[in-house]
Design a protein that fits this description.
By secondary structure, this protein is of the alpha+beta class. The protein is built from eleven helices and 26 strands.
Amino acid sequence: MHKMILFFGLLLFQGVCHSQNDSLDNHKSELDSSVNLFISGLSDFTEIDSNKFSNELKLDSLFKLKKLFNFSGELNNGMDYGLLVGYVDTSSSRPFRVLNSNADLQVTSLGLPLNVSYSYSNFRNPLGVNNYFRISVDTDKLKQKSEQKKSELIGNVDSQINDVKNIKSQLTGKLGYGEILMERLDREINSQKKRLESQKSELQELKSSQVIDSTNVSSKIKDSIMSSSKLDSLERKYSQAQKAYQKTIALYDTIYTLYSKAKGVYTRYSNIEQELEEKKEFLNDYSGLVSKKNIETKLESEAVGRKSGIINDIKTLDIGLTYPKTTALSNNSVPIKGLHLELQRKKWYSSVSVGTTVNNLFVSNDIVQNKLVNTQNLFNQFDFQSITEKGFLVNIISGYGTKEGSHIFLGVRHLSNSRVDLALYNNPSTPVKTPSLGLEIDTRIIPRFLPDTKIDFVYGKTSQTSKLIDGTRKSVVNSLFSNDRTNTGLVKIIQPIKRLKTRITASARWIDPSADMRSLGVLQPNNFRYELRSRHTITRRLNVGLNYRRDQNNVARTSDSTINLNIIGGEINGQIGRIISYFGTVNYLTQSTMSNSLEFDRKNNYMLGAGISYQYELNDTKNAITFSYNDYLITDSISTNLFRNIGVQNLTFFRKGKNSFSVSYFKSGSDDFEESEAIIIGEEYVYGMKRVKINVGVKFAYNNRLKNDIGFKAGLIASLTDFIEFSLSAEKLILGNFYNSYDRQRFDNFPYAILSNIKFKLK
């Protein structure tokens, strides 16, 4: 009976032990599964993705040169014959025969955008300047490309920043889970360590108690069996606990190693994110040309981070015909054939212009324009020079600041031949060429407490041509640094008033009588000017401008008479709704001449202009009608001239064409000639197909002084291919308006114009 009880007791003890072992095994299995899950989850995060991220921002693909050479634009070659509007020749009354060619090309060479243009005509007297060639760095396109590249780079950086943040977010979760596992394993290790110590103590006690007492054999046998079985069980449990303990420590070490490695990767990703953020900040602030070199430059300092090449500093680069601004006294430019280069290196500005000057005579068939431009009148009394002789000009400007911001510039200019009034010398037929030299200090101040205010101070001095000719001055340098009255100056204040949406400009300018103006464009010496201008945005669809100018000559008071000009005027433009647009301008001028004998002469001139345009629909057909009014009273050195024009034009837009109907009234006259009145009625229709456009028109002229006349025109524009376009037109011209005037004998001989052109479209 005792043996049976002992047997069942052993079974029960072993069952309890197995139950505890099963519980431990389940616990270990769940812990192993969590550890294995953590290890597998970190397998993708223990190394930096070298293909996607590195300590340097990978931008190679954005800077690869797509095309070594690329160009687009238009090339025109034409032949014109007959009575041509743009040409004047008083030596013959025969029809013009002109071959011409011109081009406007956008060329990209090695990533640098250039504009290449030229114009050639076998007839040397067209409107404006002909027979020129120009290569310009397209700074606007360069900035546009740089901004586009900048946007691409910022987008690329943003994408990488988002990827890094996403990886860091995933790593944060993994690292947090690893910290929980390590804390859990640490508790498990401490628990297993205590359990081992307890089992070891229990095992030692059991071994020491295994001493058999001989007085009770049966009891000794039972105790021996029980003790031996318990000892085996404890030793087995102790051995298993030791293995589990070592395994848990190994798991902890494995997870700690992976956690440390992942923590290091997380730190590296944080550094990459910081570098990317710095590059993004650099890109957002960078205003120069974006290139791989300046983007990948280490951002150790502002100076290093913004280091750029010479190409970043170019603001203007023209080779050929160019229009450099040689003075800050006005907005006038001097046309030259040569080189014009402007550089802005951080806060240092430099400009160099070298070339041959071009005449400033603008030949035109427009009578009104000729009266305003090519003859001295009240409107240009102090702003006109007739320069026909070429000269070699060198102009250098350099200084601290930017053109539009605060600055102080020093300008030096030298011209091979200054302007000479030959009538002052004994032999006016002999060319007199004398060099000129000029200096100019140009300053602009933008006060910090008034950041929208601009204050300009300009002072200049030139050599005196007359004293160089008569030998009073030995050289241009000696003449420049003398007490001769050759000073120039300007004071200007530009003041925006944001709350009133107003911009006010006030200026005072003086030019001494002996100052040499040949190298300064269209400016006259011996002049003092006050000027006040304002621009007002009344509403979103109403703008108003006002202006006042007062000019006075005889600055040195050496002449017997003094001329004063006063111009007051204004302009207005805007919209009424979305279909009505309007504009208006008025300038009223008075000239008063006061002589020492107290004689007083007063003349009045004006220029008026107004227009209104209205869009409407008639039977679902879109139309636009325009009314215009122009009135000019201009006094030149010979007479006072009246020019008046009233016109109406209606445009009708069809699905494949456009019709234009116009009626114009012209009135002109002067002190010496009878007034002329004319009415011109015109009708023109343009029909367009896919590759062909045809236009036909007719005009009727009714004139009180000339015979009534009829004119017509017909034209064809055909796209022979996607790259070649041919045009041909013929027109019989009529007399009557004053915007196109012709030599009467030439007109009577051949009042026709035949124009042909082949256009090459380069893409």
